[in-house]
Design goal:
about 170 residues, 9 helices
Length: about 170
Amino acid sequence: MPSSSGPLIRFYLGEATDHCQRTIDDIWALPPFWLEHTHDYIQWLFPIPEAGRFNGFAPLLDERERAWFADSNELRERHRRSLDVMLEFFGLTHNSDEIVPLPNLNMREHIWLKRGGHNHLRITRIIRSLNLCHQGELARAFQQAVIEIGTRHGVVSEHSIHYWRTATQDSGN
């Protein structure tokens, strides 16, 4: 592991807060309404190399942070915990090695099933982050699930599906 950690790694390990003084545990405990209507936490939970337009304060994922994720089971486990929070928000869950819809999945409460919207951008970010943070298998499982479930239970646009399909083309693992 690299010798010193930056703000992203300290946040992920529960040793520091984000730009709004929230810990990762605080974010994990937030209700779905808050997760839907707040836009500055997803960049901390699912970092990628590019800055998002909603949160210039979030650190970017660079090679040093990627090395930390590669070397730390704890970081990868905490990253999976972030995914679990978002899966529940999206009306999904893990079932062994696949991601499946919860019984209450519906378009009214899970608006990612509708055409377009900021949740489609979040999904792309999550797939890319998982892939770049050395969780390629999980990235592909999530990718496959949102494509299949989004087209079967929703009206997800082909444009969004294209982004989801290409989100694992980054050199992850």
